[in-house]
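Re: [ENG-882] Designed sequences occasionally contain unexpected residues at chain ends

Forwarding the minimal case from QA. Structure tokens:
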């Protein structure tokens, strides 16, 4: 079992809000976290898995169920299977606004966010749970490499062999496309989305070329946009938006697309072992996405995570803005990183509070007077400025 960074965040949300929703893909560890929180809680805890018919039957009359457990922490897992529950939660919370009464776990955002936004505005806090981070595992170089190769789904990461992990990821993607997405109302054939997902993997970390994707798929740009929306809503990809600042520069305005889990990216690219990864032409792009996911998950709540690029060639891989702070990250897969003139031009444009190069190094060191090279394990500290 791993000490997830989100545990403290969820516990804090339960102390200040009557209901908390934890959103993340299936198999990412939401149920395990909920059981840890239940063990830590000093109140009774009632757990219902709403994918199970027997537990759904216990909730057939929500009002009676809530009255039966007035002082309990009620955990509703896979809550998207009973979206009607939100209209019962609102009057119950208005009747008793005690903190930490409900913990809702959801595997996708399609119906859950819409329902919660409409029904529980001002009553519900949300926390997003992603894959394992390097800070949450034994932070040796070998384990970091394993996390990069296999991705952050706990079962994939802890598989006995690379081959077992690879097969687990293939099964995960097949079930997501064939079973889970149709249950959420997605009416796109699984082979079509599988083909599209693989095409997105091949353009991972690059500017999103909607026309090229549409041409390759033999479909329209709006349809490609809908496919991207579906995978983003399922927490499978991340669209990194460009930074828009008034610098009298011609700025790139197209987002970049990343697969959020490096293990799924590698499965789609046919990368099975670390040797495969290190010799693959997508290796540098894969490392960039792996680091971006760490930055995105560890960034302060409310921070904006973007990239910066101008038509003249100034470029910064990741820019995090939070209040008056502007923290820049350049991502390099090398253990002896070098930067281009575009990096220096971006620093002159942005005048950041701090700038870091994230590379595969053992220890952080000064790259220049204003720039520091850091390891993946240093990102959390770098963001706490």
């Amino acid at each position: 079992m791993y000490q997830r960074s989100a545990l403290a965040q969820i516990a804090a949300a339960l102390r200040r809000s009557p209901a908390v929703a934890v959103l993340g893909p299936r198999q990412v560890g939401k149920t395990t976290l909920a059981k840890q929180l239940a063990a830590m809680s000093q109140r009774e805890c009632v757990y219902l898995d709403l994918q199970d018919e027997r537990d759904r039957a216990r909730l057939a009359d929500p009002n009676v169920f809530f009255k039966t457990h007035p002082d309990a922490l009620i955990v509703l897992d896979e809550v998207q299977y009973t979206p009607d529950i939100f209209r019962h939660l609102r009057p119950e919370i208005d009747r008793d606004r005690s903190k930490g009464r409900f913990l809702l776990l959801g595997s996708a955002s399609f119906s859950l966010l819409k329902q919660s936004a409409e029904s529980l505005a001002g009553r519900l806090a949300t926390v997003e749970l992603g894959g394992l981070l390097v800070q949450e595992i034994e932070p040796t170089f070998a384990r970091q490499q394993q996390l990069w190769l296999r991705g952050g789904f706990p079962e994939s990461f802890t598989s006995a062999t690379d081959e077992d992990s690879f097969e687990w990821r293939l099964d995960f993607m097949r079930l997501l496309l064939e079973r889970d997405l149709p249950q959420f109302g997605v009416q796109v054939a699984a082979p079509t989305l599988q083909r599209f997902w693989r095409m997105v993997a091949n353009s991972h970390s690059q500017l999103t070329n909607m026309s090229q994707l549409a041409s390759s798929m033999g479909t329209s740009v709006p349809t490609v946009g809908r496919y991207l929306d579906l995978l983003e809503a399922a927490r499978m990809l991340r669209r990194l938006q460009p930074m828009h600042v008034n610098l009298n520069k011609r700025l790139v305005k197209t987002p970049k697309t990343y697969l959020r889990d490096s293990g799924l990216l590698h499965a789609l690219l046919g990368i099975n072992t670390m040797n495969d990864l290190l010799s693959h032409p997508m290796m540098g792009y894969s490392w960039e996405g792996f680091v971006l996911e760490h930055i995105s998950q560890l960034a302060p709540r409310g921070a904006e995570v973007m990239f910066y690029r101008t038509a003249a060639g100034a470029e910064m891989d990741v820019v995090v803005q939070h209040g008056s702070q502007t923290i820049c990250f350049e991502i390099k897969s090398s253990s002896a990183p070098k930067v281009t003139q575009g990096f220096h031009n971006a620093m002159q444009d942005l005048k950041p509070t701090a700038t870091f190069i994230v590379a595969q190094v053992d220890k952080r060191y000064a790259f220049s007077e204003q720039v520091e090279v850091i390891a993946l394990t240093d990102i959390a500290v770098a963001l706490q400025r």
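QA comment: On inspection the terminal residues look reasonable. The chain has a mean pLDDT of 91. Proposing we downgrade this to a documentation issue.
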